[in-house]
Amino acid sequence: xxxxxxxxxxxxxxxxxxxxxxxxxxxxxxxxxxxxxxxxxxxxxxxxxxxxxxxxxxxxxxxxxxxxxxxxxxxxxxxxxxxxxxxxxxxxxxxxxxxxxxxxxxxxxxxxxxxxxxxxxxxxxxxxxxxxxxxxxxxxxxxxxxxxxxxxxxxxxxxxxxxxxxxxxxxxxxxxxxxxxxxxxxxxxxxxxxxxxxxxxxxxxxxxxxxxxxxxxxxxxxxxxxxxxxxxxxxxxxxxxxxxxxxxxxxxxxxxxxxxxxxxxxxxxxxxxxxxxxxxxxxxxxxxxxxxxxxxxxxxxxxxxxxxxxxxxxxxxxxxxxxxxxxxxxxxxxxxxxxxxxxxxxxxxxxxxxxxxxxxxxxxxxxxxxxxxxxxxxxxxxxxxxxxxxxxxxxxxxxxx
Length: 401
Known about the structure:
The chain is 50% helix and 13% strand. By secondary structure, the protein is α+β, with helices and mostly antiparallel strands. The protein folds into two domains: 14-115, Phosphorylase Kinase, domain 1, CATH 3.30.200.20; 121-393, Aminoglycoside phosphotransferase (APH), C-terminal lobe (Aminoglycoside 3'-phosphotransferase, Chain: A, domain 2), CATH 3.90.1200.10. Helix 4 (136-150) runs parallel beside helix 10 (279-307) and helix 11 packs antiparallel against helix 13.
């Protein structure tokens, strides 16, 4: 890893964040202001500044030259802040209804100032709390379709796409994905974090050579395919929503990769909820799965038929081939996400909030089995088949209609 000079870097405090916002004229400098640090992620600091009387606000996000959760022992490039700001601007140009506005960015200080989304709720927390987001999956399906199509060779002239991809080269954060999603969870001797009761289930994955082979193929796809500009970390903790509005945030992992990766990340995070919910709750998540995939395919098909610039756009069978490939890839990537969030180093609240120990172990064992099935069977699966897998593997908590 190259040594980086961060001598000019200064970390913001609540006081200096207010000073910066005033200097840029992004808030009323004469108003009474409140600033609090709200970031709970592993990599960055986030400040929420509001005018006390009007409650008008902005968000200031700053990357630091190391992983916040581990400190300076794990250095990280500050370039990720510029990648995130540029990705937000890029994605907003294609679907402004689903992406917050960026007001200002400073690559040297790794700062991005953006629209305040505090009137919305983080989707992961909302789903855990039982909140309803009736338009969420339709919106995310449209978002992925638009960002995938408009940044691909089917819309951009290939040399233009390659130039865009050059600006989104993101090796350090891609390495995090390559290690934590595709490598560590699948080898017993590599780092992991899980309850001792999951040892047998983990061993089955480590000793399943079919799983390991298919994960190797998926990792190669992630590392080599440049189909479109991806969000790169599209889980439910990176989405704000209400009953009518949806905004996608935190694309600091953005890079050019396989379309199925973003699709698979969102699918997997819905599946965590499908595993942990009761019968009625499962049906709500199954509806989300159907709506997400329907919206993606319908939107992508419309863009393909109306705005495709490829000389092969009218070749019979080309679009169905691509949609099938995206889906197969997505289910495989979803399987990897289910497994790594269960026995890898980074877990999800969907599973960890379960209070009863036996219930939690049962749910986590199920996610491991489901993940392995998705990886191995991805060539033959569609959305109804995935839903049927969830039902079969959660019989103790799911009663058929």
